[in-house]
Structures are given as structure tokens and as C-alpha cells.
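As a warm-up, study this chain.
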Amino acid sequence: MREGLAGCLVGLGLLLATPLDAATTSTFQVSAQIVAGCLVVGGVTSYGVLIFGTQSALSTGILSTSLGGTTVTFQCTPGVTLSMSLDGGQNPASGTRNLKRSDGTQVLAYQLYRDAAYTQALGIGQSVTVSYSDPMAIKLPVYGRTQLSGTLPAGTYSDVVQVTVSW
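Now compare it with the structure written out below.
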């Protein structure tokens, strides 16, 4: 019996001593999925300000301005379609945005546009595509215009408009 056990152990030793056919090279898959998107750069809660300036209560004429102040910039994956929509502000009436005097007794109607020529109005809740040439430095194209009547009481007139940006 010892001879049989010894023979098995020698046979097992020969099996362990012979190299196994193990693969020493192989491959593995590497992939990444890049999704289109945008980044809001600036870290501010306000996308900017429209300031018509200081005028005499007797002034007449049209005032124009563009979105300025501390504005945010968007960076988007090239080819992304960026859109924005603006609500009616805090003082809408009959589909018109209004600046309201600080005591709440008087309003001044104003219009918003998406071009400096004031030909493409930004309707309340209307989604419009934001055109850009540099995907790393996109600013929202918002322009404002109002008509002074010369009969407004003196005071500070203001409004807050909510902007929704999507891509």
C-alpha cells in the first residue's frame, strides 16, 4: 500500500512540476460615454441686470439697455442647443412686463428682446434658442426697451424676471 501511495505522490509531483497552459496576455475593453451638456460659470444667483438709468420725471422718449452687471457665462459642449425662456416678471399685466414703483402705485411697461436691434421680442414664457459662436463663453442675449411718457411720478421702478435655461 505504501508503494501505491508513493507512486501517486510521485505522479502528483510530476503534474505539479509541469507548467500549466495559462494565458500570459489578454485584452480588456475601455470605453467612455461623453454626453452633451452645459456648465454655468460664475456661481452667482443672478444672471445679470437691466438698468435703464436715472431719468427726469419729465423725460420722454425711448430708453434701451442690455443685460449687464455681474453676468454668468455658460460653457457648452460644441453643438449643444441652448435655449432660454423668461417669465412675465413680478408685475405682469395683459401680457406685458412692468416695472413697478417702490410704493406699488405706478407701473412702467417695458419689453425684452433677444437682439440689439430690438426686432426679436422675447414673449412671456417663449422658449428661444441662444445663438453662440464660442461654446466656452456664452452670454444670454437679453435687451430691454421702455417708453417714457413724461408724466410718471418720481421714484424707483423695478421688476424681477425669472430666466429658465435648458439644453
